[in-house]
Design a protein that fits this description.
Length: 491
């Protein structure tokens, strides 16, 4: 209950999905939410709409849309549960690291890790795949420490792990669940989880805590528990091939285009933020793990640093967004455990935690301006556009050569076509699919960059610009009846 209350209070002020925030100012989460709506309304993922993320993430947002169809409040409550579990697993991982009897030091280490790492201001401005992936990385970190540290009172208090049999069952079963879940969210996370699984497996087998096949069995059972429902769904709907094509092949192609410079360069401030975010996380991970090399003896002393380096490198692959670094945050627990290893300095912990929360809130207040009561020119434009779209519940929306935003959330809008928003590094086939949706007039509303050629094409296809007085980078067009359609209607 304590972890739940802490997560609720923390996310109430900092989560972009909470009751003190507005729908305005979203990208990724808006696309996930719209696709969740589409799934609820019977559209088939990876056939009627697609994304580079896995189906478990879309299912989470579908649940959020079912709980609260026109706001993100459903996603907020899911996030509260997720962060409660993150607190839970990191707390017990900290107890193993610190060999903590009463848990006071572990609690302090966990608070610092979550408040200062997982919710770092320049990272946590939307609820994304990294939030849900962090849960499974945290669970895997606990399982790895549980199996790799067979010594110490805290480990023994958690239950014996030195006998053969079911003692290793729960940690490996949880590792299997984590492998399956991360595979269905973002498979880069699966590689990170696999690193933790490998450490746990080698430790258990080398120390003869289990036979070689028992961890494999429990891991397979955990993974199948997550994977089988989705596999059955794909087979029933007949979209398994489309899933493989979209989630793996198309994602590899788009990432390859990004790597080869087929994406327009970012603005200077974005470049600085990306480079800065990567450097900051590298330094934090180094500060958290390098001291273990000098503090302990044997090969294990290098393990935290090697894990941190591997996580950082995997998160940096084709690194185009600063929030990719969030998935490394659970490993900062190694550092926060060092800070409190002698005794928890609660005044210092409270001060650092408060500064983190206030700094995060001020950062979001200044840069994103989507707290209730905040006004901005961008917000005015969004409200004017949203008022028109919301008047057409269930409308079909297309983001033509641009990223999606939250315009369709209030209307419970659904994607107008399979490639209904522009992905970074989009292939020619993806762009062609969008063009065909425009020329066939499949979308009720189209958001498009303020480009004369594209605007002219829309007007030729019978679309009318909404609020033309707004001279902004992204403009909204609404489909109007063409003369032939009007004549057929009259007959």
């Amino acid at each position: 209950m304590f972890f739940f209350l802490m997560s609720f209070v923390l996310l109430f002020f900092l989560s972009p999905d909470s009751y003190v925030r507005q729908v305005f100012g979203r990208l990724d989460s808006a696309m996930f939410f719209t696709q969740g709506h589409a799934w609820l309304k019977g559209m088939v993922p990876y056939v009627d709409f697609t994304d580079s993320k896995g189906p478990l993430l879309l299912a989470i947002y579908a649940l959020g849309a079912w709980l609260s169809p026109t706001t993100y409040h459903g996603v907020f409550w899911i996030s509260v549960i997720v962060y409660t579990l993150i607190f839970f697993f990191l707390y017990h991982a900290a107890r193993l690291l610190l060999d903590d009897h009463d848990g006071h030091r572990a609690l302090a280490a966990t608070i610092l890790c979550v408040w200062g790492g997982c919710l770092f201001p320049i990272i946590h401005v939307e609820t994304r795949a990294e939030d849900f992936g962090t849960l499974f990385i945290s669970a895997s970190l606990w399982a790895m420490l549980r199996l790799a540290s067979a010594h110490g009172d805290a480990a023994r208090a958690a239950g014996p792990i030195t006998r053969q049999g079911p003692d290793c069952a729960l940690p490996f079963f949880l590792l299997g669940i984590s492998l399956g879940a991360t595979f269905l969210i973002k498979y880069t996370f699966t590689a990170m989880t696999m690193l933790l699984w490998t450490v746990a497996y080698v430790a258990v087998v080398r120390q003869r805590h289990s036979t070689w096949w028992q961890p494999l069995l429990w891991t397979a059972l955990g993974a199948l528990l997550v994977l089988m429902p989705f596999l059955i769904y794909f087979l029933v709907e007949g979209n398994l091939h489309a899933f493989v094509q979209s989630y793996f092949l198309n994602t590899i192609a788009t990432v390859g285009n990004i790597a080869h410079g087929h994406v327009p360069p970012s603005a200077p401030w974005e470049v600085r933020q990306l480079i800065g975010g990567r450097i900051v996380m590298f330094l934090l991970l180094a500060a958290a793990t390098v001291p273990y090399i000098t503090m302990y003896k044997g090969a294990r002393r290098f393990l935290p640093s090697l894990l941190a380096l591997a996580f950082w490198l995997l998160a940096s692959l084709n690194y185009i967004h600063v929030h990719y670094m969030q998935i490394c945050a659970p490993l900062l627990l190694f550092g926060t455990a060092l800070i409190v290893r002698r005794r928890p300095r609660w005044p210092l912990i409270a001060t650092l935690s408060l500064l983190t929360v206030v700094g995060n809130g001020l950062y979001q207040w200044h840069h994103y301006r989507n707290y209730i009561g905040q006004e901005s020119a961008e917000r005015t434009v969004f409200d004017d556009y949203a008022a028109v779209v919301n008047g057409h519940p269930g409308c079909r929306i297309l983001f033509w050569h641009c990223l999606g935003n939250a315009l369709g959330v209030g209307a419970e809008a659904v994607p107008a076509c399979r490639d209904w928003f522009w992905q970074a590094g989009a292939t020619p086939q993806m762009e062609l699919a969008q063009d065909e949706a425009v020329y066939s007039r499949d979308a009720d509303f189209i958001v498009v960059p303020n480009n004369p050629r594209r605007l002219r094409a829309l007007e030729e296809r019978g679309y009318r610009r909404v609020h033309p007085e707004h001279d902004v980078n992204l403009v909204l067009y609404q489909r109007m009846p063409m003369k032939k359609e009007i004549k057929n209607h009259n007959h």
